[in-house]
Specification:
The chain is mainly α and 291 residues long. It is built from 13 helices and no strands. The chain has one domain. α2 runs antiparallel to α3.
Length: 291
C-alpha cells in the first residue's frame, strides 16, 4: 500500500481538517437531494469512495474465508445504515442537529463500556441536550414554529446513531481480520446494500455527468480525505485526545451548515449541541483517565 508523505502538520490540525472535510462533503451533498434523493447521493458517495480507496490500497479479495466475509457483510450494512439514514435526516433537519443526534451512537458505545460513576454526568448532559432537541418537548415548552424539528428527521438521525455505534463495535473486529484493507472492502459491500434504494431514488439521474462529478467530490471529501487524515492523526495522537476533538464535530457541522446552506439554529438548539458535545468530550477523556 502506498505510504503517505511526511507532513509537518500537527495531529490536532489533521483531526480538525478531517471534521471540516466530512461536514463540507455533507453540505455539498444536501443540494443534490432534489435531483438524486438522499439515497441516490449516498449510493454515489459510497461507490466512488470504494473505487478510490480500492485503487489506492489494492485489496486482495481472495485471501479471506467465510467467517471474515460474514463480518464484512455486517460491517458494510452498518455503514450503509449510518450513511443512508444520516443523509435522510439532513434532508429534513439542519446538519448540525443531525450530527448532534447521530453522535449519540459513539457516545453510547463509550458510556456502555465504562463503569465509572462520573459517566452518569455525561449521560445526564446528553439526555438534557436531546430533550432540548425533541420536537415533542419543544411543543410543550411553547417553542416557535421555526424551531420545531421534523419528527421523521429526528428518527432518521437516531437510526444513523445506531449505525454509527454498530460501525464502531464492528470496526475493531474487522480491523483485526482485514488489516489495512478493510475500508475498500466494506465500502464495496455498503455500495451493494444501497443499490436498490439508490437506484429507486435517483434513476437515470445517477448517470448525469454533473451528478457524477459532485458525487465524486462528496466521496473524496466525506470519506477518502476524512479517513486518510484520521489515519495520519491517530498515528501521532492519543486515542482519548482524538475522541475529545471529535466531540467538536456537531459545532463544526452547525457552522458549515450556517455558512454554506444558511441553516440558522435557535438558542435551544445551540444549547443542546453544546451539551452533547461536552458529554462526548467528557466520556472520551474518561475512557483513558490515566493517559
Amino acid at each position: 500500500m502506498p505510504s503517505f508523505p511526511r507532513l509537518a502538520v500537527p495531529p490536532v490540525a489533521l483531526v480538525l481538517f478531517s471534521i471540516v472535510s466530512t461536514q463540507l462533503g455533507s453540505a455539498i451533498a444536501k443540494p443534490l437531494f432534489p435531483v438524486l434523493g438522499p439515497a441516490g447521493v449516498v449510493l454515489l458517495r459510497l461507490a466512488f469512495s470504494a473505487l478510490m480507496l480500492a485503487c489506492w490500497q489494492r485489496p486482495d479479495w481472495r485471501r479471506y474465508g467465510a467467517a471474515e466475509y460474514r463480518l464484512l457483510v455486517l460491517f458494510g450494512l452498518a455503514i450503509a445504515l449510518m450513511n443512508g439514514f444520516f443523509y435522510a435526516a439532513i434532508a429534513r433537519i439542519p446538519i448540525g442537529i443531525a450530527v448532534t443526534l447521530e453522535f449519540l451512537g459513539p457516545l453510547g458505545v463509550a458510556l456502555f463500556k465504562s463503569r465509572r460513576r462520573l459517566d452518569l454526568l455525561w449521560v445526564a448532559l446528553a439526555a438534557v441536550g436531546i430533550a432540548l432537541l425533541s420536537p415533542w418537548s419543544a411543543i410543550g415548552l411553547g417553542a416557535t414554529d421555526e424551531f420545531l424539528l421534523d419528527p421523521l428527521g429526528v428518527v432518521y438521525a437516531l437510526l444513523a446513531a445506531v449505525g454509527w455505534g454498530s460501525y464502531i463495535l464492528l470496526s475493531a473486529k474487522a480491523g483485526e481480520s482485514f488489516a489495512g484493507e478493510v475500508l475498500p472492502l466494506v465500502l464495496g459491500v455498503a455500495t451493494v446494500a444501497m443499490l436498490p434504494s439508490g437506484i429507486a431514488s435517483a434513476g437515470w439521474a445517477l448517470f448525469q455527468p454533473k451528478m457524477l462529478l459532485f458525487g465524486a467530490i462528496v466521496a473524496f471529501l466525506a470519506s477518502v480525505m476524512t479517513y486518510s487524515l484520521e489515519m495520519l492523526a491517530l498515528k501521532r495522537l492519543p486515542i482519548h485526545v482524538f475522541g475529545v476533538l471529535m466531540s467538536l464535530e456537531p459545532a463544526i457541522a452547525s457552522c458549515l451548515g450556517f455558512v454554506i446552506l444558511g441553516e440558522t439554529l435557535s438558542v435551544r438548539a445551540l444549547m443542546a449541541i453544546a451539551l452533547v458535545s461536552v458529554a462526548a468530550g467528557g466520556a472520551a477523556v474518561n475512557q483513558f483517565p490515566d493517559a
